[in-house]
Design goal:
single chain, 5 helices, mainly alpha
Length: about 140
């Protein structure tokens, strides 16, 4: 019985699926984050590359640098069952969580300041409108 053929993807397949440019995908490859096989000049991506691309894009949305994402991939590739590797990965995760919580706190403060500024502008506009109305009477 023949083994099922592993699913493969072209660069344009991944580009369309993730709504990114082929240039971006080649850049991630240049950074060592993706490793497609080649058939002549054609890049052939496997399921692992597809999952990694999804993780790269998710990490990017969450504020991970490509270097941080690459480091996580390296740690996982070296030995995802090693206690020291997992502890290092947990340290990276904890630092990123801390950074994100700080950003969340900063965003809340800025939103409050913008709300206060908006209220001040509305109050001033109302006073100006009332003054103009009084002057026109």
């Amino acid at each position: 019985m023949a083994e099922p053929k592993a699913q493969t993807f072209s660069i344009s397949d991944l580009s369309k699926e993730f709504d990114i440019t082929t240039r971006s995908i080649r850049f991630y490859e240049d950074q060592g984050l993706l490793a497609p096989t080649r058939k002549g000049q054609t890049r052939i991506y496997n399921q692992r590359d597809k999952v990694r691309l999804k993780l790269i894009l998710r990490g990017k949305r969450l504020g991970f640098s490509l270097a941080e994402t690459g480091r996580i991939f390296e740690l996982y590739d070296l030995d995802n069952t090693s206690a020291s590797q997992l502890k290092l990965m947990m340290d990276i995760i904890e630092q990123k969580k801390s950074d994100l919580y700080q950003q969340l706190d900063d965003i809340k403060v800025v939103l409050m300041e913008l709300t206060n500024l908006e209220e001040s502008c509305l109050t001033t506009l109302s006073a100006i409108d009332n003054k103009n109305l009084t002057n026109n009477l």
